Amino acid sequence: MGKETGFLEYTRKNNRDVPVAERILNFEEFHTPLETEERRQQAARCMNCGVPFCQSAMNLSGMVTGCPLHNLIPEWNDEIYNGHDEHAFARLHKISNFPEFTGRVCPALCEKACMCGQDSDPVTVHDNELYLVERAFSDGYIKPEKPSIRSGKRVAVIGAGPSGLAAADDLNHRGHLVEVFEREDEIGGLLMYGIPNMKLDKKVIKRRRKLMEEEGVIFRTGVDVGRSDAEVKKLMDDFDALILCCGAKKPRPLAAAEPGKISGVYYAVDFLSKTTKALLKAKDRSAEALKKEGGYIDAADKNVVIVGGGDTGNDCIGTVIRMGAKSVTAIEMMPKPPMERTVANPWPEWPKVLKTDYGHEEAAFVYGEDPRVFERTVKSVVTDKKGKIRQVETVRVAFKDGKLTEVEGTEETIKCDLLLIAAGFIGCEDYTAEAFSVKRTDRGVVATGDGSYNIPGTKIFSAGDMHRGQSLVVWAIAEGKACARQVDEYLMGYTNM
Ligand SMILES: Cc1cc2nc3c(=O)[nH]c(=O)nc-3n(C[C@H](O)[C@H](O)[C@H](O)COP(=O)(O)OP(=O)(O)OC[C@H]3O[C@@H](n4cnc5c(N)ncnc54)[C@H](O)[C@@H]3O)c2cc1C
Ligand code: SF4
Fold it and tell me: What is this structure's pTM?
């Protein structure tokens, strides 16, 4: 344990945020790190618990609490406090392939389970992780680690999101030759073309790509696998094992408005990815440079309605604010969660409380109120003569006999020039699953045996959102790692991973 009295002496201090008024002028990351001395104090708050719930990943009341990767959190907190950053990083990187991703975007399941959070504020595990990995890059002690012996086995990974990258990373380090096929022009999956730049700067993904390439992973971008039978046959012939990590990108539709049929209606990920692509071509990350670049779906001076209150909805709010939207309303079907844990949801369960994210905070600053409207859905839309959306009619919904039903007489109309659908995803896209003849569950994801990533009777495996369903980056990484172990066992007859 770093400092026995650390948790009594120091209060929690988060990385500082750039003030809202400044940060909404650009798409840059906006958390600035603490001074090193302050960071060591934050690590000193860790009590090195005998039972470290932070790294447990226990299933409590149907939800996982604690880190799904079982990160060695108390160990590296202690090392940070003692000033042994390089060793702390080695312990972190032993378990976690990409702390620079989770240190930026993970909702920190570890912190929700932290013992200090029981009656005070949890340890800043997430910020401590980010400190360590950024230090490792800036001080140059993260170095390419090329395997000294190759197994002679070849593995193809289809999809370069966090699950595919984690599987590729582990299998490459084990000595297998790994090629990653990605249909986009850059790797990263939703880290690249989903999550906006202000949450995760795209340079961070390119930096990891370079490292993995130096270690021997081959990336083949711009290859949309599954469009031709001959290409699928060639992959099946050329590789000893295949891992499908294509995500769960099929969006949940909105009955009242279909993108492509009504002008001004888009799926959120299409909107976000177009913004990032334009931004990457722009002179810099400012809102002004984006405007000059063009080629994206612009929200400037528009009344924007976003359907869906999750991470995706929040990222849309932050993005349209930076573009200069006139108003933003975020519509959420579920009731407003409580501000604090209820008696039925005690620590260390995952807290079912209202989460106010950066986009909500920015909207409150710009428009004077939280943009979220709960227990409502879009019933219909009104278009002008040119077929362009102008209004949405919303209606209150309530649970009746366990089903969400519309409440008559509660209709309201709001102005809307841009409708973004961020209502979640309903499974993997059809063509890749069909190309490899893999069965899907009734949740639209790849069917494997219980606890298995293998499609029975084949050399095909699947991991991440494509296997688990829409989830989190940390789960995608955890699935990629677990799948890699099974692939290794399949290839070698045993595994030591
Ligand atoms: C807007 C948004 C914000 C999010 N924010 C967060 C957050 O803050 N924190 C968090 O933890 N999670 C967040 N998530 C969820 C998280 O991004 C996903 O759970 C995670 O990226 C899933 O990883 P994956 O590797 O399984 O799939 P993906 O990241 O979806 O990657 C799949 C990859 O496969 C490629 N692909 C698909 N089909 C083919 C094919 N046929 N041939 C070649 N390539 C193919 C795709 O182009 C893509 O690159 C967010 C999701 C969205 C949409
Ligand atoms: S639960 Fe919190 S205090 Fe305990 S070991 Fe984990 S991070 Fe440290």
Answer: 0.97
